[in-house]
Amino acid sequence: MFRIITVAATTGALAIGSLVCAAPALAAPADDRPTAHSSLSVIQKAGAAATAKRITSLNTGISKVNASTRLTSDDKSTVLGTLNADLAAMQGLQTKIAADTTASTAWTDYKSIFTDYRVYAVALPQSYIAAAADGLTGTAIPKLQSAEDRISAYFAAHPDKVTADLQAKLADMQSKTADAVSKTSGLAAAALAVTPAAYDANHAVLADDRAAARAAVADVKAAAQDGHAILAALK
Amino acid sequence: MIADRASRLLVPVAALALLVALTGCGKAGPGAGDGLGAGQNASSGSAPAASTPAPDDSAALDAISQDLDSATAANGEAGSDATDSDQAASSSDEP
Question: Which of A120, A199, A203, A226 to mutate to test the interface with B (most CBs of B within 10 A)?
């Protein structure tokens, strides 16, 4: 009887143990992402897909940056330098992984697609953040400030047309513009300073910059709406 | 007799003068010398001319409009860039 209980207990423990050991495999992503233990062909297939996807995205990004009239020349140069270097690297890795003859080497090359370049996590987002920031600081915000100055001058010349509501709208416009100035101050430089290594250390390293760009766009939109409302009342 | 006729003429003349003064007829131009602002003139008999911005006003308002349009266009592009940034980050399959 004791033996039966012992065997049953041992069998149960082994079953539970095997489930625990299998848990990581069950919890693994449903995609075809390889592991260090994958075969050479599996790693090569995943590497080809990952590099091709990034090459397409980088080419799109480079086209957008080249067409951008908002990026400063310095920032455009920095962004194109990063994106073109990443593009060349992805093309090189695509060729190398396809030619690798061992799973170990292919795995090392495959990992470098991510850890050395961070195309989606860093290179592309930081480029777009810089473009947004430069567009705001170089054009949108100065034009708003010019409109505010002109509205103030118009108010001074036509005090009979100035109502409390119009004054409040101008004050809100100026406040929103000041907020946008604050949020975009140094934003492009901060975003472009982020490296793949910084992302590896902190996956949220660009989150604040992305949020600042979105918030500044919302501020400028609200300020322009105030301006248009003032203008409609004056006409 | 002459004094009686004069007093009879004086009443209509005074009434006519009062009418001219109240309606603003006979003024040299809109707002000229009356100390009223453009907005107040808008309710007078010369409303059409007063409600249309003067040439200088039109230029000022056009300049404001152009500034706002430029700001809005640039902000639209910046918004598109910010969206692209979010999409790139959210589509990341990087571990």
Answer: A120
Say how many residues make up chain A. 235
Give the integer Cα–Cα distance in Å for A29 and A23.
12
Q: Domain ranges in chain A?
A: 1-30, 37-117, 121-234
Q: What is the distance between the alpha carbons of residues A152 and A139, in angstroms, rounded to a whole number?
A: 20
Instruction: Determine which of A9-18, A65-74, A119-128, B33-42 has the lowest per-residue pLDDT on average.
Output: B33-42
Q: Which ipTM was obtained for this model?
A: 0.82
DSSP for B17-60, please give it: HHHHHHH-TT-SSTTTTT---HHHHTTSTTHHHHHSPPHHHHHH
For residue A50, the model assigns a pLDDT of: 96
Instruction: Please state, rounded to an integer, the average pLDDT across all residues of chain A.
Output: 89
Mutation for A interface: B57, B65, B81, most A CBs within 10 A: B81
Chain pair A-B, CB pairs under 8 angstroms: 144
Q: pTM of the predicted model, to two decimals? A: 0.74
